[in-house]
Automatic annotation (TrEMBL):
It is found in: Cell membrane. It is a lipid-anchor; GPI-anchor. Its EC number is 4.2.1.1. Gene3D superfamilies: Alpha carbonic anhydrase (3.10.200.10). It is an enzyme of class 4 (lyase). GO terms for cellular component: plasma membrane; side of membrane. One of its GO terms (molecular function) is carbonate dehydratase activity. Keywords: Cell membrane, Disulfide bond, Glycoprotein, GPI-anchor, Lipoprotein, Lyase, Membrane, Metal-binding, Signal, Transmembrane, Transmembrane helix, Zinc. This is Carbonic anhydrase. Belongs to the alpha-carbonic anhydrase family. Its cofactor is Zn(2+). Interacts with SLC4A4.
Amino acid sequence: MLQLILPVLLSSLWAACAGSGDWCYQSQFSCTHQCNEKWDHANQDCGGSKQSPINIVTRKTIKDERLTPLKFSNYQQIFKSSIKNNGHSVQVGVPHLSTISGGDLPTTYKAVQFHLHWGNKGGPGSEHTIDGEQYPMELHIVHMKADYADLTTALRDREGVAVLGFFYEVSNSANRKYDPIITSLQSIKAANGNMSLPSISLAQLIPSEQNMTSYFRYKGSLTTPGCTEAVIWTVFENPIPLSMDQLKAFSELKFSDGNPLVGNFRPIQPLNGRKVFRSSGAVVLVSSALLLATLAAALGLSQPN
Ligand SMILES: [Zn+2]
């Protein structure tokens, strides 16, 4: 029975809002309502073969020596911006000053905006999953090739966009670097709510550079319609800590229909033969280091201190 129900459930998770040009997440509807529509009706690219997000099976990732640490420029730059509940997520525009390069990216990419995907009150909510594990939230910092003036143009280039994905994990203490964002959420609970954000930098939102050397790389798409397959994905292994209260604050936001804006993640998409690469610092190496340590302990070798 489960085998029959699962495909139906999975396909229904991909809901589009019937009759309008808009789209939505399944969490916005009960399964008796509008569950038979698919996002590829919203945009045919959503039915493509290189879609995101994906589940990353770490033992199947391929270690790539070219995936050296990314070079972050002007990520410390403090900027003023506005934060908006766009009815699907919380989004912050970023002045095009911060850039990334290196790590086998074909060129320099400049930051355009960031937004988040989350679950219900700190429950599972990331878009990418690692070995089937879904984290409570995921940050997407969207970049485009430095030569382009706008995202629309960049999305016509198969490598026009680079998105950095970061997971979150629950920590015991609040992450004070997120106070400006978390506090602002109070004022933008309604869809289209918008307010100016106190000064922040991108660097304060993400792990320190030495904790960003482990990452996964694959080619995919935007995870919202039009689902354009123009994205070089970099998904970092080390999560960002937030307290449960901080995570729960996102569940206070509302979709356009007034219901809680929760579960705004797209279901995982088939790999369709795509390869996922990992930087030399990534997880599988950690396991082999552990294995070596275990072996050494078993053999009674003393560890230098
Ligand atoms: Zn996203």
